[in-house]
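[Q] Does anyone have a clean structure-token version of this?
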Amino acid sequence: MEGSESGAVEQRYGYGGAPVAASSAALAVAAASESEPNDTKSNATGISRAETVEGSLSGAEVDWYAFDAADGETVTVTYETTASSGVSSVALYDAEENFRDQIYASAPSTVELSDSTTEGTNFVQVLNVENGEGDYTIRVDPAGENDSTTPTPTSTPTPTATETPSPTPTPTPTPTPDEQSSYGDGPWTIPGRIEAEDYDTGGPGVAYEDTTEENEGGEYRDGQVDIEETGDDGGGYNIGWTRTGEWTEYTVDAESGTYDVNLRVGSNGGEGRIEVLLGGESLGTIDVPDTGSWQNYETVTISDISIESADEEILRVEAVNNSYTLNWIEFVDVSSTPTPTPTETSTPTPTPTVTLVDDDSYGEQTYGEYGYGGVESSSS
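[A] Here you go.
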């Protein structure tokens, strides 16, 4: 570093804010390139303000960087990817490890994000979203103080002639928002499966909320929701590039019952979280596990949800925390089958038992012997 004597010891802060000692020569090396491994917050590479750090992404890689900041300070993170193609992203987390903001970069390009920090060690995450392998640079500056970019000179404006006053224009009526309605073969039924990409029509703020201005995947439908071809069993499409606060809605007809709500998800990092709502009421929130890549899918379940019968109700799937891919949502009826009431059987009337009694009280009787015709015969 300029201005430091050779071998001088400077103080810097690592993960958790604990001071560590390092020589100025070592700090210069750390500022020049990332220190592998740095795939978790606990082994994040330290980054000093206004110093550019070089890094590289390969495969399904995540790189973490740590820097100290004051509470409420606004910083700008500048990220430049020199990869030939693909998509990567950079995200900011505060000292309490809460997600602050994220921006995607289609290679090659340079992007910036600005947000406030909390006191202590804050974090920057660089993520290979899809085929974004390659080299990059990253730096953290106080907002508006990135001196790495030479400003474009501003030309002296040509004096503007005084204009003739224009007549007051007629006010334009406020447009009526697009009406929300089901897409394709909807309304969708509960129980049943709903493809994530078949969200309602009506546009942003009505049928969905998405932070990008266009469909990042470029597949299936126009609009801002990011859709791509899925690698899941059965093919089709999935929603991806999700960010905190984004949501999609679906018009459904529901039957009363108890349901398991299954969601088919993928994640390269396992930090996603999804909330499912029906008619504005939360059915539950569930974490998305690390499935190894965006196109490796697992089914997660919100169990034993009681739903009342309703026609044309609104189902919402919302990203509480990014990122994940979503293929479909499925409602499985797990209501128990009622046990039939047995038919009452009448008890039959017992049949009386007749007992024959041998009664000797009549004494011994003798009878004469009679022949044919009733004539008493004589005995010899």
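[Q] Thanks! Anything notable?
[A] The longest helix spans residues 24-32.
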